[in-house]
Design brief:
The protein is α/β, with parallel strands linked by helices and 94 residues long. The protein contains 2 helices and 5 strands. The chain has helices at 7-13, 50-60, and strands at 2-4, 20-24, 28-35, 38-45, 67-69. The protein has a 5-stranded mixed β-sheet with strand order 1-4-3-2-5, with no helix packed on it. The radius of gyration is 17 Å and the shape is elongated.
Length: 94
Amino acid sequence: MIINVDWETFHSRYFLEGTVFVQEHSSYFEFLRCDGVLIIRSVYEKHEDSEQNIAFIERYMTDKKNIVKVLNFDNEEAPEPIVEEEKEFKEVIE
């Protein structure tokens, strides 16, 4: 399931936790983060002023170890989240 959130929410709650995938489009940046079965998505609209866009890139996407820049997502869809298999537990009473 994909959940869309605004940039401020994404930045304050999800940006520094785990791997973040980012794709640059002509007029916006798209950020994705997998959180279990959820995919958290945010779109940041670019400014008309290129200096503000450069400042945004330097602040949020340069020298960050958890940022993965991608050219595109498969079929323009978000990456599949990794889901751990459920384990069965048996209770044994003696």
